[in-house]
Amino acid sequence: MHSLPVILGLLLGSAVLIYLACEFFVNGVEWVGRKMAVGQKATGTILAAFGTALPESVVTFVAVTFPRTVADKDIGVGAAMGGPLALGTVAYAVVGVTLLLCKRQLPAGDEGRILYAGLSRDQAWFIVISIAKLAVGLAAFAFKPWLGVLFLAAYAAYAWKEMTGVEDAEEVELEPLKLTPKAGTPTTWAALAQTLAALAVIFVASRFFVGQLGALGPYLNLKPQLLSLLISPIATELPETLNAVIWIRQGKVRLALANISGAMMIQATVPTAFGLFATPWVLDQALVLAGAVTLLSVSLLFFAFWRGWITRTYLACMSLAYVAFAAVTLGFGL
User: Fold this and answer.
1) C-alpha 19 chain-centroid distance
2) Most exposed residue of 249, 261, 290, 298, measured as fewest CB within 10 angstroms of its CB?
3) pLDDT for the residue numbered 79
4) 3 CB contacts (<8 Å, ≥6 apart)?
5) Whole-prediction pTM value?
6) Ranges of H-type helices in the chain
């Protein structure tokens, strides 16, 4: 086992690598979206979110399908519940804080109205799906594994709606593709190559980051399931969060919010389906609490987007829900 300073150094190094890879990823995926003639929201909610949500989905898939220990399936279920919790609280809070630090404003007027209407619909989808996966986790019945197909179908329906929807916002000027900076308009293959290469680096670096968090667990005296519920999702949702930071720094707030919203839809459905296929999907107290806190935070976001109450400070305060969850979980030893 590495010493604590070495583990912290490796964590920092992998986080920096993820950030640099995200710079190439967001640049590439914007061009892929332009080439596919999809709007900014679909680029964020589907193209970018699908790629950056892979680490968390893979954590659940590998843990529940190829368990090495008895605890691995529990870890997989914990990751499936922890991902949406991290996105619905910490990721949105990072967006709010970054907006404040960069002195960027949230979209207003017609642009804001259109964006917030779409985001509120995303939150509504998420709320319905989350209620269903919580309810399924509170009961035991024979045909439960088959319900995983319904969760996959729910995401497919959401993705289809996003990709075929009408994009009302005007196009923004894109930075040159980093792979071919001298080309005014890069080729589709160049955009795809850069996006996939960056995604591969993000994937490997994220897995390494999670591994170092696992090594950090004994120093924090955390059980494996609590580690997967409290700490690992923060790491595996790092790409979405860093994408949002990069896009906000570039003034593309629409893409930043859409990426997190789309990633939440993936995390609510795909890892849950894996869990239903391979585990009993019976949730303990900590997991039920995680689901309840996620539902509460997303409900607050839904009403804020729906009613137009959303502000930078409102988003920044979403982290309080995660802090409260961690305090209750650790304080009561759930």
Assistant:
1) 15
2) 249
3) 77
4) none
5) 0.83
6) 4-35, 40-42, 49-52, 54-65, 72-86, 92-102, 109-137, 147-164, 188-220, 224-226, 232-236, 238-249, 253-278, 285-307, 312-316, 319-331
